[in-house]
Write a structure and sequence with these properties.
Blueprint: H1 6-10, H2 18-32, H3 40-56, H4 59-66, H5 88-96, E1 115-121, H6 123-128, E2 130-141, E3 157-158, E4 167-174, E5 177-184, E6 193-194, E7 207-218, E8 227-230, E9 246-252, E10 259-261, E11 264-272, H7 273-278, E12 280-286, E13 289-295, E14 304-307, E15 323-330, H8 337-349, H9 366-374
Parallel strand pairs: 1-9, 11-15
Antiparallel strand pairs: 2-7, 3-6, 4-5, 8-9, 10-11, 12-13, 14-15
Helix pairs in contact: 2-3
Length: about 375
Amino acid sequence: MPTTDYYEVLGVSRDASTDEIKKAYRRLARQLHPDVNPDPATQERFKEVTNAYEVLADARKREMYDLGADPLATGNGVGGGFGAGFSFTDIVDAFFGGTATARGPRSRVRRGQDALVRLEVELAEAAFGATKELHVDTAVVCGTCHGGGTSPGSELVTCPTCAGSGEISQVQRSFLGQVMTTRPCPQCHGYGTINRRPCVECAGDGRVRSRRALTIKVPAGVDSGTRIQLAGQGEVGPGGGPPGDLYVEVLVRPHPVFERSGDDLHCTVALPMTAAALGTTVELETLDGVETLEVRPGAQHGQLLKIPARGVPRLRGTGRGDMIVHLEVHTPTRLDARQEQLLRELAKLRDEERTHGPVQAQAPNLFSRLRDAFK
């Protein structure tokens, strides 16, 4: 049974999260670090705090400690039966040759994770491209230990349990006889070295969180959901390892006039009834500037007019989409006496004073005739 209450040493509850344990260790380490307080009693207290953090910050060691074992007291040995630390993986390795070759100590330096951020742009920026400044919160190399994870003036020491190999071997008795199993050293987690004096700033991880600014070029033709990859701009890895990639997902803000469909832009133009009947020209504001749209006489409600090559440039190709104009014919709801008289005269001239019955249905096409034939 452990003689030291590691939870009490760090001043945290038994159900404390990993972040709470890390914060408690940082707070105590700043007070007790030998560089700050060289008193021998304080150094002994700092060693006790470091041991408590080493156990509670590791999920496997913490589980062993909660079950009543002291992970820091575990060493090499020859055990019988299925004692503490013997897992199902050991059995699989023993039967299927997983221990035929030694893996050796694993590196503390690993590649960082990729990161994803979102960037909002205007429609014109998405269409023609833009240069934007982006602020991201990612892991960067610790400025105190420069990724090493140790306090200034200290260094990693060889693990006394595995002698730097990162593995320990045990002989287990089974129904097949004695079986040699190899597993990562529980003292150094397979690294082969132990960090006796972790960096106070990063708690031995070699990296800290920081906010930084990036300049990103948005290519012409992007749409919502397009992802831009920035190689090497993601999270720095543990131990100051190489960073992952940063992916920027573009989100195009809604435009008050235009609606995008693929590479085409759609908009609606309202026309009075007289303009639709007589024809007119409309000054239309596009992403490229003012364009003159010609509406021929007799324009109908819902009619579509196209302005070629005034849409969005194609992201992975040449050329541009079109601008599609939807006509919306408005019928007047209020007329003065003179206007009503003129409309009645027009209706009389066109013999439209009253309706001429229902509109004749169109002749059935080939597909409808085939459909009716099978009914």
